[in-house]
């Protein structure tokens, strides 16, 4: 056990749903700074470059009948026909308002734009796909930044095409190739004065080994992936987005396809950017393979079967 270098202070200031997160990830010994992740020094994404990335949108304002302006709240990654993997802290603002009211949000795949005007109705076309949130499952031990992972179940299956597709999730806890990719919207720099990107950005991310990350943070960091922030990075606004790699030696990776290894969680300036390590949550993702409705139905069905066959054993 690493002794009381739990001098890490994880501070949260509750924010309005339309304002930047004010979360602090810091150590009392070294850091005074905080940011919410967003791509920094990224390049503009081409159509279909990151087909599994989605934007979780919140309503900004109503423009008229059937016309609502939506803006990016968080990123996420499509991992099946109905499931999106993202960060749990995306839903904790305002006393977990969005976790309790997921119907307010929308999940948009395929679009490269940050702010969109749309009715919010479920729709599939060659440019983008809009889905409502049927259910949100947060890790039951979530306490930022620990267990910062969540699943979204959408109301209608995604239609896979060149610009909308799923990504496989890592199952082996290993050190990944030094250069991976992340993507998202948000500010193009660390400061609030930096402009918000109107289009999707992609950045090469330099990961560092688990042992080095543990040494830097002075605590066990096996459930995180850390990156070096020297060149390209994440800054404000893209929590929940993907960290994806190729050439990982993970048994589920397929040739020429990205492997989802991390979920963008948080960072500080003096240390490293943190990503939730997906391989550590492989079993949790598998256990939540269906919605609560499906699980409840199975529970009822099994209990009915047991009730019917129990007398046979008396």
UniProtKB/TrEMBL annotation:
Q: Which residues cross the membrane?
A: 296-313
Q: What's one GO BP annotation on this UniProt entry? A: proteolysis
Q: Where is the signal peptide?
A: 1-18
Question: CDD domains from the entry?
Answer: Tryp_SPc (cd00190)
PANTHER family given for it? PEPTIDASE S1 DOMAIN-CONTAINING PROTEIN (PTHR24276:SF96), POLYSERASE-RELATED (PTHR24276)
- What's the domain of life for this entry? Eukaryota
Looking up Pfam families in the UniProt record yields: Trypsin (PF00089)
Q: Which UniProt keywords apply?
A: Disulfide bond, Hydrolase, Membrane, Protease, Serine protease, Signal, Transmembrane, Transmembrane helix
Record SMART domains:
Tryp_SPc
The record's SUPFAM superfamilies line, in alphabetical order, gives: Trypsin-like serine proteases (SSF50494)
Query: What name has this protein been given in UniProt?
Result: Chymotrypsin-1-like
Q: Which GO terms describe its molecular function?
A: serine-type endopeptidase activity
What protein family is recorded? Belongs to the peptidase S1 family.
Name all Peptidase S1 domain ranges: 39-290
